[in-house]
Structures are given as structure tokens and as C-alpha cells.
Amino acid sequence: MAGALALGGGALTLGFRWNRMIVRADSSAAPNFTPTKLIRYNKDNHGLKLTLFQFQTCPFCCKTRAFLDYYGISYDVVEVNSVTKKQLKWSQYKKVPVLVVNGVGKDGFLQLNESSVIMSLLESYLINPKYKLEELKSYYPCIESKEGRKVVYDFPNRYYVMYGADVTKQVYDERKQERKWRFWSDDNLVHVLSPNVYRTMSESLATFRYFSDVGDWEKNFSRFERLMVIYVGATVMYFVGKMLKKKHKLKKDVRESLYDSCREWTRALGTKQPFMGGKNPDLSDLAVYGVLSSIEGCEAFQDALKHTKIGPWYNRTKEAVKNNLGASVPLRK
């Protein structure tokens, strides 16, 4: 099916030429796992039956949950074992988050991969529910490539919100600014986290124990699995953190790189508005908040609160997400 939608910030026609490039990284076999958690909102009238496959403290999973919670969209959670990933054996795509929409599509479910795609696609759907989710997904093609032995997935349109008609100049400009900071959260902010939370072996172990607590690993995994992930994971990630520090050219004291990123965000935010989106959070607020919330219980986050001015904005956004503010705020159309 060829067709066209306007993107918030440009126009693009997608059709058969994209389909030849698509590597869907999907599965035709419906996943069948008992949810580890049910998130329900009494005022949810979106009619979506969602299952989120996640790591509780994965930054990309956190921003996906921030989006769903902000809009008051109910969903089930399946916690994935970060070592064995047995909960994702049904899927060709082995990263998290994976969001499954049940009761949709030719196979009875629709698989949505990658956090920014999930946010953009669902935002597009909320703006204009007349578009089918299957149709919207076709505008977010997945392109596969290889870097050595590593399979790399790219979603070129992941930061674009789709509109069914031409957008106003104001919305065009707002979405353009939003995309800039959404990209920044993935390309800058997220890269300073691991070297900070795994800075020392003791910090790394404390981080994994925090992950175990908030992810209910004691309930969701066997004792052996839980201890293996904690101690093996903490050891491995300590060394990975050192590699990432070098790869992303962070400062000798990686805390300073974390502080720099927090300051860059608060400088751009300024003092005249509570959120980057103005009176209410936009997708960039939710993305940056989600990424930072993944380390909320870690020493690094507490240090960031002490040494930067990120706290007031963070707490405002946390309250907006907790109270499902997006469910009562008009979308930008």
C-alpha cells in the first residue's frame, strides 16, 4: 500500500520503495508469557491491549513507560531476564523494549520495536485514531545492516510524529525542536549513564542490587538467575563502563560528563517555562525524564541532584507522568 502522511516538520511519501528496504525484525508467532505486572488506569479509553517486554531499569524502557503512564494508557509488563533473554525467544528482534499490541494485524498482534518508534507511532495514533496501527507502522521502516558480526537496526523516521494533514507553522517548529532533544537524549544523555552507575565495582554492585529491587527480580526470576545477573552483570558492566567512557570520550571524572549533560538540558529549558514543551511536557521531556529515571536510585543520580539544577524540572515531570497529565491535555494537531 502506498500512501502519504505529513510528518511534524516536513512531508514525506512512503510506499513500495521503502517496503523493499524493510527488515521487520518481527515474529509471526504470538508471544505467550504470563505478565509479571499489570498497569491499569481507570480512565483509560484508548482501547489498546498492550504488553511491554522490558528491563525495568533500561533507559529506553523507562522512557516508553513514561510515555504510556503520562497518557494514562494501560499495559501489561513482561520482565525480561537481561542475561538469558528467554522471554524474547519468540522474537527475531532481541532488544528491549518490545511493545506488543494484541488483537491487531493479520497475525492477531502487532510488534513494535524501539522506544522512539513506539513513542512516535503511538503519539501519531493518539492525534488521529482513524489511522490503523498497522498503517502507521509502515511509516517507520526498520533497516538492518551489519557492523562486523553485530546486527544493527536503524529506524530512520523514529523521531517523526505523523499527521494526516499539513501541520501549522507553530506545530512544525515545535516538533522540530522536540526531535532535536529526543535525538540528544539517545545520542548524548544515555551514553553518560553506564560509565557513571558502574564507575567502581562497589557502585556497579549497588546499581545491580537496586535493579533487582525495582525490577522485582526476587519474584520474577529464580534465586540462581537473580544472583547470576547481579554478580556477573555487575562485574561485566564495570568493565563495559570503562570501555564506554573511552568510546564516548567522557571526562576523566565521568561525573562531570553527567553534570555537563544535565546542565545542557536545563540551560536549554531556561526559566520561563516549566517544561521543554511549554506548559506541559512534550516527547522530549518524556524522553529525557525517562532516561534519567532509570538511574533514580543510584548514587550518580543523587550526585546530579546535588551538583546541577536538574531536580525541579525532573520532579515536575515525574508528577506529570505519575498523574497521567497527558490524558487531560489536548494534543498538538
TrEMBL record:
Q: Which residues form the GST N-terminal domain?
A: 48-130
Enzyme class per UniProt = isomerase
Transmembrane ranges? Answer: 227-244
Q: What is its EC number?
A: 5.3.99.3
> Gene3D superfamilies annotated for this entry?
1.20.1050.10, 6.20.200.30, Glutaredoxin
Gene Ontology MF terms in the entry: prostaglandin-E synthase activity
Q: Which GO terms describe its biological process?
A: prostaglandin biosynthetic process
Q: Which reaction does it catalyse?
A: prostaglandin H2 = prostaglandin E2; prostaglandin H2 = (12S)-hydroxy-(5Z,8E,10E)-heptadecatrienoate + malonaldehyde
Write out the pathway annotation from the protein's UniProt entry.
Lipid metabolism; prostaglandin biosynthesis
The record's keywords, sorted A to Z, are: Fatty acid biosynthesis, Fatty acid metabolism, Isomerase, Lipid biosynthesis, Lipid metabolism, Membrane, Prostaglandin biosynthesis, Prostaglandin metabolism, Transmembrane, Transmembrane helix
Name of the protein this chain belongs to:
Prostaglandin E synthase 2
Q: Which organism is it from?
A: Lottia gigantea (Giant owl limpet)
